[in-house]
Amino acid sequence: MATGIICIIILMACVFGIKSYAKRLSHGCCGGGGETIKKIRPADKQKSHYPHTYKLEIEGMTCSNCSTRIENAFNTREGCYARADSGKRTATLHTKHPLTESEAREIVKKAGYRVTAFQTIT
Questions:
Q1: What is the distance between the alpha carbons of residues 60 and 5, in angstroms, rounded to a whole number?
Q2: Are 68 and 111 in contact (CB under 8 A)?
């Protein structure tokens, strides 16, 4: 009897795992359902107005929806302009005021990703 219950529980776990995997295959890594996330544009898109530039390597960013999430996390902040590249798993961040590495890491973490490298360009 106990063996039968354990087998049913294992079978149910397998079914849920297969459904989750199939959803990822059909809807991308984020389960976006084929819908693209709306990009939030910064108020000022003129790069020459941003004296500070940083390059971030980001773990977990694998699709265009991931890139948009990273960009939106920064572009919603005053004085930030970000462009992310999911293929290279990087983001270039332009800011009007200096940004610390810990601040950048926290913003990316809240978006659901992890910074693996942080480099100040200018």
A1: 37
A2: no
- Comparing CA positions, the residue from 122, 58, 111 lying closest to residue 88 is 58
d(CA 99, CA 56) in angstroms, rounded, equals 12
Q: How far apart are the first and last CA of the chain?
A: 68
61-76 burial: b if 16+ Cβ within 10 Å, else e:
bbbbbbbbbbbbbbbe
Residue 24 has pLDDT above 60, yes or no: no
- At residue 13, the pLDDT reads 79
Q: Following DSSP, what letter does each residue of 72-122 receive, concatenated?
A: HHHHTSTTEEEEEETTTTEEEEEESS---HHHHHHHHHHHT-EEEEEEE--
> What's the predicted TM-score (pTM) here?
0.72
Q: What pLDDT shows up at residue 67? A: 93
Would residue 68 be called left, alpha or beta, if left means φ above 0 and alpha means ψ between -120 and 50 degrees? alpha
* Token duo for residue 73: 């996390």
